[in-house]
Amino acid sequence: xxxxxxxxxxxxxxxxxxxxxxxxxxxxxxxxxxxxxxxxxxxxxxxxxxxxxxxxxxxxxxxxxxxxxxxxxxxxxxxxxxxxxxxxxxxxxxxxxxxxxxxxxxxxxxxxxxxxxxxxxxxxxxxxxxxxxxxxxxxxxxxxxxxxxxxxxxxxxxxxxxxxxxxxxxxxxxxxxxxxxxxxxxxxxxxxxxxxxxxxxxxxxxxxxxxxxxxxxxxxxxxxxxxxxxxxxxxxxxxxxxxxxxxxxxxxxxxxxxxxxxxxxxxxxxxxxxxxxxxxxxxxxxxxxxxxxxxxxxxxxxxxxxxxxxxxxxxxxxxxxxxxxxxxxxxxxxxx
Length: 336
Ligand code: NDP
Hints:
Blueprint: E1 2-6, H1 11-22, E2 26-31, H2 38-43, E3 51-55, E4 74-77, H3 90-110, E5 116-120, E6 134-136, H4 144-152, H5 158-179, E7 187-192, E8 195-197, H6 212-222, E9 235-240, H7 241-253, E10 261-263, E11 267-270, H8 271-281, E12 301-303, H9 306-312, H10 319-332
Parallel strand pairs: 1-2, 1-4, 2-3, 4-5, 5-7, 6-12, 7-10, 8-9
Antiparallel strand pairs: 9-11
Bound molecules: NADPH dihydro-nicotinamide-adenine-dinucleotide phosphate.
């Protein structure tokens, strides 16, 4: 099959493309400029004509993906901003929301061969901040962040701005399917991962240039960027980037996945869990909070990932396994 991957130069997008190529797919990736294509061309040279790239300079423009979607059997839409530096919330919302809509519009107009569309959403579109432990499922929606951004605009929290962009983009995708039910020949799968960690294969010159989630990981685990007193209490849920990439492949392969929103999560963590794992493979990792007892950890945000196992047959890596591979990657880059 032929698969379009938007944002193929991103941390997740590039892993999605690599897993698809390894599974024998022909992949077309979109990037914003030729400069962003160079590294990938080199990386995927072994796949020869099975891989190609197209430049989509502005994903928010009407007709942006008209050429890109032609002759594709499936589309994986990963391109969307993920950072905590937005002033006006529209800096995130416009590319997230309109980017998603443009992809779907182009498929409707020019993607007659497309059978399945996968959108990379996030648990950002699922969760609500809690003061007591709670397990979220695919039934849950984070509309609170949309309200926050509407009320506070540029004064909303950075997390709120990002989460609103993901909620609005995902809702737009489901609304599009609903509205065009009679005229589309494809179905939608949405994947909702929490924090994504694991080795990086996209172009990264220095730790400072890492994508948001891995930047956070590197600085929290090896550079002491978190308050040591909070290493045993601060955390979230996570998934390995390679497991998430597998999920993207399985999402186009499993017929029954169609029409589903699927949480892709390995489990909860506290930062000290990563530090303890890192210290078993690299002595330079700072000790953090050695009084931390994982058995006593309380996780406010937990995610039920049973649907991913049932529908996709997904298997998840452990914190120890992922940490070993990240440390190996960082050592190879000379960062540790
Ligand atoms: P990256 O920053 O590594 O990649 C983001 C991708 O989106 C890049 O290809 C980037 O292209 C593209 N993009 C960003 N902003 C724009 C824009 N305004 N116009 C066009 N393209 C844009 O992040 P990730 O790989 O981590 O994120 C990929 C997806 O996964 C996103 O949808 C994100 O919300 C989601 N996600 C990520 C999680 C994580 O922990 N990493 C967790 C949950 C969901 P360019 O380089 O040109 O900016």
